[in-house]
Amino acid sequence: MTVNSYDEWSPLREVIVGSPIGYDSHELDLSFRLFFKVFDEFTGMSRKLIKKQYVEELHEDVEGLVTALEGLSVTVHRPLTLPKRADFRTLHWQSTSTPALNVRDQAIILGNEIIETPPQVRARYFENDLLKPLFAQYFAHGANWSVMPRPVMTDHSFDLSHARAHDPEHVPGFDELALPASGMGFEMLFDAAQCLRFGRDILVNIATDHHALGAEWLVRHFGERFRFHLMRRLDNNHIDTQVLPLRPGTLFLRHPGVVDWLPEPLRRWDKIYAPEPNPADFPDYGPDDLTLTSLYIDMNVLSIDENTVIANSQAPQLIKTLETHGFTVVPVRHRRLFGGGFHCFTLDAVRADSGPEDYFS
Ligand SMILES: NC(=[NH2+])NCCC[C@H](N)C(=O)O
């Protein structure tokens, strides 16, 4: 049981699958509103309850993902379940922890090393504690394990310039920030899901100065072992509904415009474009619900190997697109949008025969 994962497509042997159990509310603080671009909704509210039905349905669907993976002879590991009392406080603020559902977001496996990334959303500050027993087991079996600097995460830690440029009316200015300065400037706030792995080459999206600090840490930490290719503002943060490599030489892209952000070698790869999402394929959410993802979330597929992907059974056009391009699609139901899809819910710890290949030459 040691980690070995250098890309997004080699044969999947071991995976961690998250869990939504205990996900009963969203904490609507500055960090949440900034990350999910929710500044002009539920204003004046500090917490938004999530309907129990939605959590139960998502739990059913994630368990369906586990069943499908085990049916494909993939070893599945699960995080600890969120304790009943998930409130916590730091020296500067308090929050309520999220469960480890989107386990792709705050840890990345590069080769035989687990890297925990610094949270961008305060409610996620201790989320990785639910993964620690698994990381400790991998460490005991020889994996390297690094944790990027834990941020203080006061209001002043965040670079709000990108958000303010898009929504000056609702995004607070520096003088309006509530929490005291942490005695430093912007902090390293960066998600693993801003990265995609291509053997020796890692694609990284940064949209703010607090992201750039995270990318700089990766570059310094890994030196010559990996080559990091920075893209600026392909998205606000995560890019696994903008671009996903399905096998060497083939990219799954949200639309042709994404190519303009890609490093030169990837522009020569074959491209499969996601179909325009059909709103009728999605659940009916009312004005009182908080939807946290775009309608492109079903692009967020999980590769089992170079020919097989797990995709949402509720996205028939997307399945047809992938099948038309020769992929075998394993359909799994995903009904509720909690900020993630099958790539988000999973952390691929072992991909057989994956290595630091040079796919960029
Ligand atoms: N690893 C993740 N959680 N990725 C999810 C990205 C979702 C993306 N922001 C969208 O709305 O389409």
TrEMBL record:
<protein>
    <submittedName>
        <fullName>Glycine amidinotransferase</fullName>
    </submittedName>
</protein>
<keyword id="KW-0808">Transferase</keyword>
<comment type="similarity">
    <text>Belongs to the amidinotransferase family.</text>
</comment>
<dbReference type="InterPro" id="IPR033195">
    <property type="entry name" value="AmidinoTrfase"/>
</dbReference>
